Structure formats: C-alpha cells, structure tokens
Amino acid sequence: MTEYANTPKPPYYACIFVSKRTEGDRGYGAMSDKMAELAAQQPGYLGVESARDEGLGITVSYWDSLEAIRLWKENAAHQVAQERGKNEWYESFGLRICKVERDSFYKL
C-alpha cells in the first residue's frame, strides 16, 4: 500500500489489527484481497492502511461509527475469514478499536 486512507474530518474510528502469520500462504493472499474489496463496500467504511514485515503485520481500517464496525465484524464472509485466520493463518493477533479525535499529515 502506498497511499494514506482518505479519511474525513474527525471524529471517526480506527480498527487496528496486528498479527503474526504462520508459515505458508494457504489461501491467505486471495482471502485478504477479497476482504479488502468487501470491506470497501460496507456502509461506514472510510479506508485502510496496511504494512507487513517478516514478522509483524499491521492493518488499520477506518469507519464512521462503532455500528459500522460491529456490522463488518458480523459480516458472514468476514466471519469465515476470521475463523480461517484463527485456525490457519495467524500465530497470534490482536485488535484495538479507537476513536480518532485529531489527525494531521505532512507532505514534502
């Protein structure tokens, strides 16, 4: 990913998902792409930023409300991906939900 998410003026919400992957792909890449496309179609979705190195992955998705986050968590296809993540793709993971009250960016 090379672009910042185009978020509105705060307040809005950020879901910060951190993970350590297991070895091998086993369909992870395709599911990740599918989930990114599906999330972008959900009401309240504002954008995403993601990075991964050899060990740690961080994905931050932005939403306009806690209700939008709840509905995304309950999405049937997303629940399938969550289960596969727990059983196949992640050694460990964590999720933080935060209210963004201020943001600022600097560009050269």
From TrEMBL:
ABM domain residues: 33-84
A Pfam family assignment: ABM
Coiled coil: none
Name this polypeptide is given: ABM domain-containing protein
Organism: Paenibacillus vortex V453
Classification lineage: Bacteria, Bacillati, Bacillota, Bacilli, Bacillales
